[in-house]
Amino acid sequence: MSELVPSLTDAQFATAVATGIALVDFWAPWCAPCREVSPLVDRAAETYKGRVACYRVNVDDNPGTSEACDILSMPTLLLLKDGKPVDKSIGTLTMAKLDAFIQQAL
Hints:
This protein has 106 residues and is of the alpha+beta class. Helix content is 36%, strand content 25%.
């Protein structure tokens, strides 16, 4: 996992995404599609550094956040602006689709 994409716990989530634009990767270690999305999120963290904060939430370790954000499938990417959800992407995607997904919040 990337240093640019820190992992959040249930206790850290609300504070971390409270201001600005955040992209949160909800994943699980046993999820194969999650491993496909992970490098794309790492790349997005580099590309949008300073404009979009990127985080990961392990759904197995942080069920409170997963439930509060209505995460039912993995991988799920949640885009937030000032703590409010903007959009959600479920499943794998291409870098081009991830860029378009992020651009809607910029």
